[in-house]
Specification:
Keywords: Coiled coil. The protein is mostly helical. Helix content is 81%, strand content 0%.
Amino acid sequence: MEDDLLIFPSNITAESEAIKAEFADAVDSYAKIIQKKIEGRGMKCVKQIMEYAEKANVKILTLTPYFDPIERMWLDVFEKELTTAFREERERLLKEKQRIEEKKKKLEEEKKKAEREAEQKEAEAMIVEYSSLEASSQNKGKLSTDSGLPAYILKMQEDIEAQRIRKENMAETQKNISARQENMDSKLDAILAFLTPKT
């Protein structure tokens, strides 16, 4: 064709298009023949696989453990009971710990209170003993210039005396407050009686 004298590019294009059309038709025909041969083969194969799986009762392999519905139900019940038991035990331990801490704190307070009472009783006993010795010494005409008692005993003696004075002052103050309260009550009663309309 390329040796012909009266040949143009358009002739080549037309010829090539005709060849491509014939080739495309041949390919389409061949594709249709193959499609007819394998038509329905894929779905049939899938159905057969599903049937085989159902007959064999094959479980699907996944990352999640497989359980039957009944097994799953019992597993859920077990997990719920286990969680509840852990929570109740934790609450019980927390309450027990709190109870022990409160008891320990109470024992420490009682111990400190007992120690303070023992120290106070000891100081009072020593003061009484010292007073007895001092009275005996005075009866014999011996004046003591030095008590001979430790400084902390003398400090306790001063504290006890100061506490006694404070109690007396508090009693007097309370007495004055009660008197003022009674006076205010009587004045309020008089005012209410004055404001109350007489019938």
